[in-house]
Amino acid sequence: MENAKALPLGKEPEKEPEIDVSKIVAINRQSLTDKLRAYCKKPFSLVLVILVLCAALLTAAAVIFIVVYTIIQGLPNLKGSLFAWEYNSDNVSMMPAIINTLFLAVMTLVIAVPIGVFAAIFMVEYAKSTNVFVKIVRMAAETLSGIPSIVFGIFGMIFFVEVVGWGFSMLAGIFTMVLMVLPLIMRTTEEALLAVPDSFREGSYALGAGKLRTIFVILLPAALSGIISGIILALGRVVGETAALIYTAGSSRKLAAGFLQSGETLSIHMYFLANEGLHVGEAWATAVVLIALVLIINGAAEFVGNKLKKEY
Asked: What is the pLDDT, as a whole number, of residue 11?
């Protein structure tokens, strides 16, 4: 090379000092003390870390306070009569509402999850990002995500209850809930698929796999954790929804015998007990059961997702 310096004969070039790689600690494996010491050298970073920690602590404290306060208020009011098979004015049983809630939540996910996931697959893997149709769909999904639930309830009452002729029924409530959670499932699935590295796709195509095989064997398992998170969020919204279901599923205290039968959910049951003012203690007990039901469903969904998820 022209710029290389000529070395005297018999003299070897000096070797660069070797770096002991074993002493290098990855930033995600450093202790909290080491991280704080590094952040102290940059005051702005230290302020941001303090703000992030405070936000996390406030969020956790709010959740813990709500759960603990609800348990303290509701646990003493839990009794066997609240789980009687049939409701009456004496036992104010929540068992019909529990079954109606599970039925409505499962049927909503059965309809909404395939539609939302397949729509996300189309927008990410088949349509171009500059496609006008894709932009319109994304804007519509984001708009629907911000609409209050009471608006969905009024729409469901006008369209499903009156125009379609289903009346106050579980079917009207199910399709109203599908409209509510569909944008959430679609957007979370889309973001999960976009987060999968392109090397996964390129490697699959290089091995001779087709488009569908790459999507269902490689991409969906890799994005499964994000998809499960979206489904859990949608499930929590369905289980805890009140306003939209009052106008569509109705407030019948009996167990819904079919899709065209009216039936209240747990959140509606709790709302009416608290609103009447005669069974406030039972309303707190219903809140405890509702929180426990959400935790059980979320835990089961996480367990199933971890079992199905492949290691990459």
From this structure: 54
Nearest C-alpha neighbor of 222 from the set 308, 95, 127: 308
Task: Count Cβ atoms below 10 Å from residue 208 Cβ, excluding itself.
Answer: 7
The letter for the amino acid at 106 is V
pLDDT in tens, 154-184: 999 999 999 998 889 999 999 999 999 999 9
The answer to whether 249 and 167 are in contact (CB under 8 A) is no
Residue closest to 177 by CA, chosen among 229, 246, 252, 271: 246
25 touches 37 (CB < 8 A) = no
**Please, which residues have CB within 8 angstroms of residue 163's CB and are 6 or more apart in sequence?**
none
Total residue length of the chain: 312
Cβ neighbours around 203 below 10 Å, total: 13
Nearest to 245 by CA among 152, 167, 183: 152
CB burial readout 131-168, b (16+ within 10 A) else e = eeebeebbeebeebeeeebeebbbbbbebbbeeeebeb
Q: Tell me the angle at which helices 280-308 and 266-276 cross, rounded to the nearest 10 degrees.
A: 160
- Locate all alpha helices (DSSP H) within the chain, ordered by sequence: 32-40, 43-74, 95-121, 132-145, 149-156, 170-194, 198-206, 211-213, 220-222, 224-240, 243-246, 266-276, 280-308
- Residue in the block written with tokens 């009471």: 150
Whether the predicted pLDDT of 28 surpasses 80: no
Q: In terms of Cα–Cα distance, which of 139, 235, 227 is closest to 180?
A: 235
Assess contact for 156 and 243: CB atoms under 8 A.
Answer: no
Which whole number is the average pLDDT over 191-217? 87
φ, ψ for residue 118, nearest 5 deg: -65, -35
